[in-house]
User: Fold this.
Amino acid sequence: MSLFLLGTILLMLSFGVHIVLWRLVIRDRRILTLLAIFAITPVLVILAGIATSTLPALDEFSMESTFRVALFYGAFSLVYVVIYSGLESESPTLAIISYIASRGDAGCIDRELSDHIMTDDGIGSRVDLMETSGLINLKSGMCTLTPKGHFFAAFFEFAARFFRLPLGG
Assistant:
């Protein structure tokens, strides 16, 4: 069995366990659960294979080969977890597009969109979190940056200029 094939099989088994558990049980700490699934599944598969003698090909793997499979599996598992965390959280851009699409071909008035953004749970909670963490102040209908918020704004502006990226993402 090639190293690539073994790593891919372990990834697919872990992904399968992930899908089954997500369908049966909803966890509060999804990222930690996902990390645990991708850490425990290959260990259980290999132990079960050794115990039942269904993985005799493992005898021919050297430490170097085992390290390569572990590196391949670990890298792809972590990439998947990072991508999944992005998919799991609500995207402000997706929320805006979905809202406008729900209004039909005529679209919506910009004030209506602004009101929706501030009352949307995902976006509104993000604004609340920014206020709680001390990045912004919301007073008298005005939103202003705190000194901490100014620091991050300056940092992002510097990074955007340095990497020649448009401001705002």
User: Anything to note?
Assistant: The first strand starts at residue 136 and ends at 139. The mean pLDDT is 81. The helical segments are 3-24, 30-51, 63-88, 92-102, 110-119, 121-132, 147-162. Strands lie at 136-139, 142-145.
